Amino acid sequence: MRNVKSVLALMLGASLLLAGCKDDKDGDADYNPVSGKKGVLLVTFGSSYGYYDGEDTSPFKYQKPKDTFDNVMKQFKETFPNEEVRMAYTSGIIMNKLRKDGKANLDFPNEALKNMAKEGFEEITVQSLHIIPGAEYNEMMGLVNDFKKSYPKVNIKVGLPLLYSNTDIQKVADIIVNQYKAVLDKNEAVVFMGHGNEKFLAYNAYYKQLQEAVSKKYPTYKLYIGTVEGEPGIEDIVKQLSSQAIAGKKVTIAPLMSIAGDHANNDMASSEPDSWKSTLEKAGYTVVPELVGLGAYKEIVNIWVAHKKESK
After folding, report:
1. Does the CA dihedral 119-67-168-11 come out positive or negative?
2. For the segment 76-90, what is each residue's pLDDT rounded down to a tens digit?
3. Apex CA 60: angle with CA 204 and CA 231, to 5°?
């Protein structure tokens, strides 16, 4: 049921986003570049978690998505002090909610780019905060290409998502293992939840490559990567766990996502019958959820920062 809700939310969000994406064919007519003015636009799906006091608490280790995004922004601002750093959300549902409640001064990517052009930015780097080059990343690229047509005089660069090259995959493998090394060294298990895509299964190959990188370099560690949509799902993970001797049958679950948002709080860590936590508990495991997104870790953000530096 939650997968159906996720698909409907994405469809509605995309329709709301595209509604505001009409080409501004005369964009260059009001473009007056300021020499040397550069900016960075961080693009992510977004989250409303963290904007409402007392609404999103958790009994588990938890970093609110807004705090995670603030952490990413801070790191980019420190790394690029001579460039203005902004953030845009692609989710129409989240943006409309935040705007209606007056909770955030954020734009859709197309709005942010147009505003930056009108403010005279000579160079804009659109930096993806996505995990893989999947559907949301491709949607972002569509918006960038539309903007280029409308504002051909603006120098637009694009930074790649987290898992793009083999080098990226190996770096992330090392980071997530080191982050949970104390747990893994005790012969306990760690299970990561990626988003995945059940319609375009090729996108899930990046998660499988990450799993292969971890298993090859750290063969004794019981670290597994599954996805909300597509394969491997939580049922596949349970089968893998059942063939292993896990100390105390203890499993830590964490999101392989930039933030610990709706999927992490509900699909992963809630008490709903079909959540990952409930599914693992039914299989006899003691489950410890950690609701901390990858964007909370400096080493992960450094990869996005490196992609910004390499952008073209």
Report:
1. negative
2. 999 999 999 999 999
3. 15
Instruction: Give the model confidence (pLDDT) of 241-276 as tens digits.
Output: 999 999 999 999 999 999 999 999 999 999 999 999
* Nearest one of 145, 151, 150, 121 to 40, comparing CA atoms: 121
Region of 108 (left: φ > 0; alpha: ψ -120 to 50; beta: rest) is beta
pLDDT confidence of residue 199: 79
Q: Please, what sign has the CA dihedral across residues 127, 4, 230, 219?
A: positive
Distance (Å) of CA 242 to CA 15, 106, 190, 273, 278: 42, 45, 14, 20, 16
As given in the structure block, the two tokens for residue 68 are 């995670």
- Cα 28 to Cα 17: distance, rounded to the nearest angstrom: 22
CB crowding 82-107: b at 16 or more within 10 Å, else e: ebebbbbbbbbbbbebbeeeeebebb
How do the residues of the chain divide into helix, strand and coil, expressed in percent and rounded to 5? 50, 20, 35
Name the pTM for this structure. 0.90
Contact yes or no for 253/268 (Cβ under 8 A): yes
289, 295, 296, 302: CA torsion to nearest 10: 140
Please count the CA atoms within 13 angstroms of the CA of 127 that sit on its side-chain side. Answer: 28
The tokens of 221 are what?
């560690």
- How far apart (Å, rounded) are the C-alpha atoms in residues 51 and 106? 12
Q: Is 130 a catalytic residue?
A: no
CA-based nearest residue to 41, from 148, 159, 139, 137: 159
Q: Check 130, 195, 263, 307 and give the catalytic one.
A: 195
Name the residue among 25, 127, 71, 110 with its Cα closest to residue 299: 71
Please, which residues bridge with residue 115 across strands? none
